[in-house]
Amino acid sequence: MRAYPKFRACAAHVSAVFLDAERTVDKAVSLIGEAARAGAAIIAFPESFVPGFPIWAALQAPIRGHDLFRALAAQSVEVPGPEVRRLCEAARRHGIMVSVGISEATTASVGCLWNSNLLIGADGAILNHHRKLVPTFFEKLIWANGDAAGLTVTDTPIGRIGMLICGENTNPLARYALMAQGEQVHISSYPPTWPTRDPGEAGRYDLTAAIRVRAGAHAFEAKVFNIVSSAVVDATMEAAIERLGADAVRILKDTPQGASMVLGPDAEPVGDVMTGDEGLLYADIDVGLTVEPKQFHDVVGYYNRFDIFRLEVDAAPREPIAITAGEGRSYPYDGELEPDPPRPHGTA
Fold first, then answer.
1. b/e string for 28-58 if b means 16 or more Cβ within 10 A?
2. What is the pLDDT of residue 137?
3. Does residue 194 surpass a pLDDT of 50?
4. Mean pLDDT, the chain, as a whole number?
5. Is the dihedral of CA 57, 61, 63, 67 positive or negative?
6. Average pLDDT over residues 213-228
7. Active site residues
8. Residue 245: is its pLDDT beyond 50?
9. Fold of the domain built from segment(s) 6-294
10. Strand 261-263 and strand 109-120: pairing?
11. Domain limits of the chain?
């Protein structure tokens, strides 16, 4: 008989210690313990939580952002790496799953970064490592394109978990790829705010409204629970932005910020919706509640036409080099050197 897990989820509506990976991981480790003590089986952190979201790319011309980019590159983390190992150890020690957004670095380049998300098991193992497929708008100045190696659903004791980063939740093909792998619980991670215009202009981007639309759309279409975690603007981010001038600070403070929530398969919030100040949001999830709505619209089952529509995903990782192993060069040496041949007289 098929079992449907019940568990408590935690969405971490929190800020990074901006551009400080070590202190941000310290904070994450503390929150992981707090969520576990509150009975949560999983805690989800925001987009690029370690070491913070590069909001400056929206607030000034690219030629002004070199110092901040260097700081981000220096504080971005490798997978695996010491910061990630600490997060894995905290998950194992407290017996809780962890979803965390990181700015990912690589030993192949000092300037190539990815906007990534890790899913860590309660045993401390990395279950999934997803790189954002396409950085959004001004993020293209910071991060490289990802790949589909992590565009997968992970079977866990609390259900089949998929995850997408911010604007990826607007991509119907990426979302369908997770639906078609039997996703039951979706994790969405977001930045603290998303400036696209001066806050006083018509047409400014309201991140909370956008989250509510796209998170609800995926929950309703996939018939899944959607755990949404957004970051918060704090004093460490404001201090870093102050060097850009008063106008940048004004835009940062006046642009609508994001929200954290958990939505059910009917697209309605399960419990509270958190905005503003930092905090941990908890919601109790019963995966069994995803079954009945599938009777109405099951887009990966009977409510589709697979003879008409087809989606193919290339999940190969995109690496800068592929090295084929070989036997290498051979330099036989038996321990004795052959004497040099005699040279004709008068030659060098």
1. bbebbeebbeeebbbbbbbbbbbbbbbbbbb
2. 97
3. yes
4. 94
5. negative
6. 98
7. 47, 132, 166
8. yes
9. Nitrilase/N-carbamoyl-D-aminoacid amidohydrolase (3.60.110)
10. unpaired
11. 6-294
Query: Which of 39, 23, 25, 32 is CA-nearest to residue 121?
Result: 32
> For position 1, what pLDDT does the model report?
81
3 state DSSP class of 201: coil
Preceding amide of 269 cis, omega within 30: no
- Count of H-run helices and E-run strands, the chain: 8, 11
Angle at 13 between CA 27 and CA 159, to 5 degrees: 95
Give the DSSP per-residue string, 277-339.
Answer: S-EEEEEEEEGGGGHHHHTT--TTTTSS-TTT-----------S--------------S-PPP
Tell me which residue has tokens 């790949």. Answer: 147
Structure confidence by residue, pLDDT tens digits, 109-161: 999 999 999 999 999 999 999 999 999 999 999 999 999 999 999 999 999 99
Give the model's confidence band at 346: pLDDT under 50 very low, under 70 low, under 90 confident, else very high. very low
At residue 46, what are phi and psi to the nearest 5 degrees? -75, 180
65-73: average pLDDT: 97
**CA–CA dist 149, 144 (Å, integer):** 15
The reported pLDDT for the residue numbered 2 is 84
Centre a 10 Å sphere on the Cβ of residue 74 and count the other Cβ atoms it contains.
12
68 token code pair = 């901040």
Q: How many whole angstroms separate alpha carbon 53 and alpha carbon 207?
A: 15
Question: How far apart are the C-alpha atoms of 31 and 43, rounded to whole Å?
Answer: 9
pLDDT of the residue at 28 = 98
Burial 94-122 (b: 16+ CB within 10 A, else e): bebbbbbbbbbbbeeeeeebbbbbbbbbb
Closest CA to 258 of 238, 235, 239, 276: 276
